[in-house]
Amino acid sequence: MKKRIAAVLMAAAMAATMVTACGSGETEETGTETTESTDSGSDSESTDGDYQFVSPADAVKAAQAGGTHVLDVREWSNYVSGRVVNSEWCPIFPLEDDSLVETMTTYAEENFGDDEDIYIICNSGQKGAQKATGVLEDAGIDASRIYTVEGGAKALAEEDGALTTNRTEESIDWQYVSGAEAVEAVGNEDIQILDVRDDDTYAQGHLEGSLQCDLKDVESADAQTALYELATSEMDAEKPVYLLCYSGNNCAKTGISVLKDAGFDVSGLYIIENGAKDADVAAAFVTD
Predict the structure, then answer these.
(1) Same domain, yes or no, for 86 and 137?
(2) Are 16 and 132 members of one domain?
(3) Which three-class secondary structure state does DSSP give residue 20?
(4) Which of 31, 103, 121, 288: CA 20 to 30 A from 91?
(5) How distant, in Å, are the alpha carbons of 165, 182, 218, 244, 266 from that of 240?
């Protein structure tokens, strides 16, 4: 199932560059609707017809505190260029792509079985959030749990620090394997080893059979996109992944966050402790 979802997400991300959607200058019909809140205070939940709204500032606070699903439904190119820390990604654009409805329905069934509220981010807080709301309700999510982030990503961009490309502070339960365990996994077809060091460093020595994607610049949207494309085209979301970076820290954490967006379950993602500095790992390096 995860492989199918990842493949659908990849197709959506590629198609989005050719389709006008919420994530890329969506044309909105605003004459008959409004997303303005009647509350100017910090507790800015409001309603507009059948939709509930939450302010950008409160959405960011909720994401930081945990206990709320902050769901970004924009296309990949906009999402990766600036996202709320701890947000989840499941695109609904292009709106014409009916396969995304099925993907979001499956995502909701697998991830929203709790009683936490869901805050939806699209580009402007209108069409994308409205369609996503309908999909979630059809998937059995109680409407009282679903909120639109008022003004969407455009409004979030005006909040200091609300959107970022830094993924190292995610509230993920980081898991580790030792260098010895990583070396033992070399050649094991059931375990994938992903090296996220830069190209030159990788060429100077790496674990045999490992995949490689340069994440040295952890905040680069282009680097994160390259890993996303590698993950959805060449990796198996059903198999565990051991990530190797320089020291077992930021690059590997960024990689895990991107793989999560690509449909990998974080329970199967592991950082190789101490990275390339580990003596067992360094001793096993090859240059082929």
Answers:
(1) yes
(2) yes
(3) coil
(4) 31
(5) 25, 12, 22, 13, 9
What tokens appear for 80 in the block? Answer: 């990766």
Contact 88, 72 (CB under 8 A): yes
State whether 6 and 109 are in the same domain.
yes
pLDDT of residue 44: 46
Phi, psi of 201 (to 5 degrees): -65, -40
pLDDT at 47: 54
Q: What is the CATH number for 241?
A: 3.40.250.10
Domain interval for residue 10: 2-156
Joined together, the tokens standing for residue 54 give 């939450």
